[in-house]
UniProtKB/TrEMBL annotation:
Pfam families: ABC1 (PF03109)
GO BP: any one term: ubiquinone biosynthetic process
Protein name listed in UniProt: 2-polyprenylphenol 6-hydroxylase
Gene that this sequence comes from: ubiB
GO molecular function terms attached to this record: ATP binding; kinase activity
Length: 523
């Protein structure tokens, strides 16, 4: 029944996409037969109003009609240009996550249920919402403290969003399975895994305790960093459906005139932003993965404050070394080393030729070295690199794609602040320091330390492993003497399965026999 409903939801989504002209705006080059006819039909039923707008606007209107789950899907796919293509990913990145607000009474009900205390007990004042998105809306409020009151921001989950998302998720999984089954070329992109990643990230985003934990972790990581911070969390007033945090009185980083009027140095802010992001990525392996200009403020002290940490990214030590080594390799024009790093990390299958891969990477690196430093985009370099790796069967690496997408956004904000921003010069202190600490002699010390820790953990587990090995040896000896034995329940299941197969076989034989008789009579 769930599958049938998923088909109906999918049909509705296709109808909305067709009516809003999204399908008609897609290129028809290379389409033949039924696909070409379907594209023509979609063009014919598109609204006239839609035909007069560009593709990004059509897509935004369709997603808005389909509801919050599709807004979240669009935002997620905007981070996966490897799946939807760069052009469509760019259109999706323009989606504005702005929805109608829901009633105050519903918000208060969510808070009381989540925290278990009345609104008047939690807040001195609780005001109407000032912004609403697909998952939540934000209310200004005040709480008591030692000196009187302080202003806070209260983020409350949208009623029914979880149930709505899981209903629509069935349709997303259906599309992914159909793509894997019917379009072999998509299997390399693992669409079902993409749907599973969307499910996991949205689950996390809809639990505000986890967002609060992410804010707390990033605050701890950056407590000594210059020029960057995140809001503090009020844990007493935070639960699954609500998070209360410090209210940020600051200037939006996109408001350049207000920043200049406040006497702030915009090129310096751009430098701080990039260095902070790279520091979080390389040093901590934990970064804010939604650092667009709407989530960045500058407080009265000139410090950048990042808000809304529903989406975060993590990189392990191997991924951080990979990133640092390829950046360093491009800087030094050591394309052979960049290629070797891909093979050492296991990202490119071993049956490919390292020299051929290095040649492909050279095609990316050499044009860059012909440009002035301030025009070279680190994010564009990574984008081109991931495009080349497709030719060498590199499987999708979601953590690297998220990093690349976030870097595109952060670098874009930096160039908004300073059109002549030199990405490489700004990043050199952070990247250079990390390389010196982790890719030079210090790397050997770190690897030895990690090896000793792994050996110590193995030694702790040695008695348990020895006991398991002894038990396995005894069971193997018993099997050699007495043969393979099953417990009664397993034997019963095997018997039932055999009976089913026997029945199926007999039915098949009867069908074949009756068919043969019918053919004989016809002849």
């Amino acid at each position: 029944m769930t599958n049938v409903l998923a088909y109906f939801r999918l049909m509705r989504a296709g109808w909305v996409m067709a009516r809003e002209g999204v399908i008609a705006s897609l290129p028809a080059d290379g389409l033949h037969g039924p696909a070409r006819a379907a594209h023509g039909l979609a063009s014919a039923i598109a609204r006239r109003r839609a035909q007069r707008t560009d593709r990004a606007e059509r897509l935004a209107r369709a997603v808005e009609r389909l509801g919050p789950s599709y807004v979240k899907l669009g935002q997620f796919l905007a981070t996966r240009p490897d799946v939807v293509g760069r052009t469509l990913a760019q259109d999706l990145s323009l989606l504005q996550d702005r929805m109608d607000t829901f009633p105050m009474a519903s918000a208060e009900e969510r808070i009381v249920e989540s925290i278990g205390r009345e609104i008047d007990d939690l807040y001195v004042r609780f005001d109407p919402p000032i912004a609403a998105a697909s998952i939540a809306q934000v209310h200004p409020a005040e709480v008591r403290n030692e000196t009187g009151t302080r202003k806070v921001a209260v983020k409350v989950v949208r009623p029914g969003i979880r149930q709505r998302f899981y209903r629509d998720l069935d349709a997303f999984y259906l599309v992914a399975r159909l793509a894997e089954r019917l379009v072999p070329a998509t299997r390399r992109l693992r669409p079902v895994d993409v749907a599973r990643t969307l499910e996991q990230t949205t689950k996390i985003e809809m639990d505000f305790r986890l967002e609060a934990a992410a804010l707390s972790e990033l605050a701890e990581n950056t407590k000594d960093d210059p020029g960057f911070r995140v809001p503090t969390v009020d844990w007493e007033r935070t639960g699954r459906d609500v998070v209360t945090m410090e209210w940020i009185d600051g200037i939006k980083i996109a408001d350049l005139d207000a920043l200049r009027d406040a006497g702030l140095d915009l090129p310096h802010l751009a430098e701080v932003l990039i260095q902070s992001f790279l520091r979080h990525t390389l040093r901590d392996g934990f970064f804010h993965a939604d650092m667009h200009q709407g989530n960045l403020f500058v407080d009265p002290n000139g410090i950048i404050v990042a808000v809304d940490m529903g989406i975060v990214g993590r990189l392990g030590r191997k991924e951080r070394r990979f990133l640092a080594e390829i950046l360093y390799g491009f800087i030094k024009r050591d394309y052979r080393r960049v290629a070797e790093v891909h093979f050492e990390a296991g990202y490119v299958p071993a049956h490919h030729d390292v020299a051929s891969f290095a040649q492909a990477i050279r095609a990316i690196g050499e044009p860059i070295h012909g440009q002035s430093a301030e025009t070279i985009s680190m994010a564009k370099l990574l984008t081109l690199l991931f495009e080349v790796t497709e030719l060498f069967d590199m499987e999708t690496r979601p953590e690297l794609i998220m990093l690349q997408k976030t870097m595109v956004v952060v670098e874009g904000v930096a160039r908004l602040l300073d059109p002549h921003f030199n990405m490489w010069k700004a990043s050199e202190p952070v990247v250079g320091d990390w390389i010196m600490r982790n890719l030079g002699p210090a790397r050997i010390v770190t690897d030895v330390k990690d090896g000793l820790q792994a050996a110590a953990r193995l030694a702790e587990q040695a008695p348990v492993l020895a006991a398991r090995a002894e038990r396995l040896s005894q069971e193997m000896d018993e099997m050699a003497k007495s043969g393979l034995r099953f417990d009664p329940e397993t034997a019963e299941h095997i018997g039932k399965a055999e009976a089913r197969h026997s029945r199926s076989g007999r039915i098949a034989l009867w069908v074949i026999a009756l068919t043969a008789i019918y053919i004989a009579f016809q002849i």
